[in-house]
Specification:
Blueprint (H helix, E strand, L loop, with lengths): L1 H23 L4 H19 L2 E2 L2 E2 H7 L1 H23 L6
Antiparallel strand pairs: 1-2
Helix pairs in contact: 1-2, 2-3
Length: 92
């Protein structure tokens, strides 16, 4: 169950890092992803949350490829939900 609690802490921070980076960054692609990942690390460092004997920022560092894949998935999801909410409903 530890992974579920970890996810409940990480996901809101990750969404914040992504949306904040989207609003402020002029970079694209991997460079923008790097910025979001760095902001995520900074948020975790500031929060000083401990998981067992490992800090959360260490967990992100050890799972960087997976975190990057999660960023890509969340950006695609956020883009799709934005596009869906802006598209008027079609009556058939």
């Amino acid at each position: 169950m530890g992974w579920a609690l970890l996810g409940l802490k990480f996901i809101p921070m990750l969404v914040h890092a992504i949306t904040s980076t989207e609003k402020k960054s002029t970079k694209k692609g991997p460079e923008k992803q790097d910025e979001a990942l760095e902001l995520m690390r900074e948020l975790l460092t500031l929060s000083q949350i401990k998981t067992s004997s490992t800090t959360d920022s260490e967990v992100v560092s050890r799972t960087e490829p997976e975190t990057r894949a999660l960023i890509n998935a969340m950006v695609a999801y956020l883009n799709a939900t934005r596009d869906a909410s802006e598209t008027p409903a079609k009556i058939q």
